[in-house]
Design brief:
heterodimer, A: 115 residues, mainly beta, five-stranded antiparallel beta sheet, 11 strands, globular, B: 117 residues, seven-stranded mixed beta sheet
């Protein structure tokens, strides 16, 4: 099955700096890669996603890049703000059997934006 | 965006009792829903895939007799933790996508914090 690794596990940045979180996946058949933001005790919120036919996608301060050959994708947050502090999870859609969109999640990155 | 409602948000129960958690897609139909379990400061681990009108598909290591899943309609899936024990204490969260579109976006319920005494 799919295996997703995520780094770093914790990340502290100063307000206004950029933050980068990286993930690798194992299943070359994976074709959908979402990123979720989760605040403590709350549901994961989809913040951006990318399909394998696209190399980069941007939405205001958030961007995601995908390297299919190397099987890795990254989340970039620019001009970080304190409200960006949360746990971020990457995910990959691997197993296409038994239900379709079965997502495998990375281990998460605790982002802390300091004033 | 699509809304997934999950109830209850918090449950405290005695060891040996059963707990039912509901997951509803409010403004879309979902032939497939997913149940995850999350321990503190850890990732979301898929427990099972709930299929409308048929049996759920369980991930390796998840006891199907322990975690009963019913998906009787296109908008409702339930997870019942049977004979709960303290080790079952965790954050349970469901997710669903709109089965009438090709949109792959998954939306999550608000989660259920289960505490077994």
């Amino acid at each position: 099955g799919e295996n997703v690794e995520q780094h770093p596990s914790t990340l502290s940045v100063q307000e206004g700096d950029s933050a980068v979180i990286k993930c690798t996946y194992s299943d070359s058949a994976s074709n959908y890669f979402p990123w979720y933001k989760q605040e403590l005790g709350k549901r994961p919120q989809l913040i951006i996603d990318i399909r394998s036919n696209v190399g980069e996608k941007k939405d205001q301060r958030i961007a995601v890049t995908l390297n299919k050959t190397a099987k890795h994708f990254s989340l970039h947050i620019t001009e970080t703000q304190p409200e960006d502090s949360a746990v971020y999870f990457c995910a990959a859609k691997g197993d296409l059997t038994g239900g379709g969109n079965k997502l495998t999640f990375g281990t998460g990155t605790q982002l802390k934006v300091e004033l | 965006g699509a809304v997934v409602s999950q109830h209850p948000s918090r449950v405290i129960c005695k060891s040996g009792t059963s707990v039912k958690i509901e997951c509803r897609s409010l403004d879309f139909q979902a032939t497939t829903m997913f149940w995850y379990r999350q321990f503190p400061k850890q990732s979301l681990m898929l427990m099972a895939t709930s299929n409308e009108g048929s049996k759920a598909t369980y991930e390796q290591g998840v006891e199907k007799d322990k975690f009963l899943i019913n998906h009787a309609s296109l908008t409702l899936s339930t997870l019942t933790v049977t004979s709960a024990h303290p080790e079952d204490s965790s954050f349970y969260i469901c997710s669903a996508r709109d089965s009438k579109t090709t949109n792959e976006k998954l939306f999550f319920g608000s989660g259920t914090q289960l505490s077994v005494l």
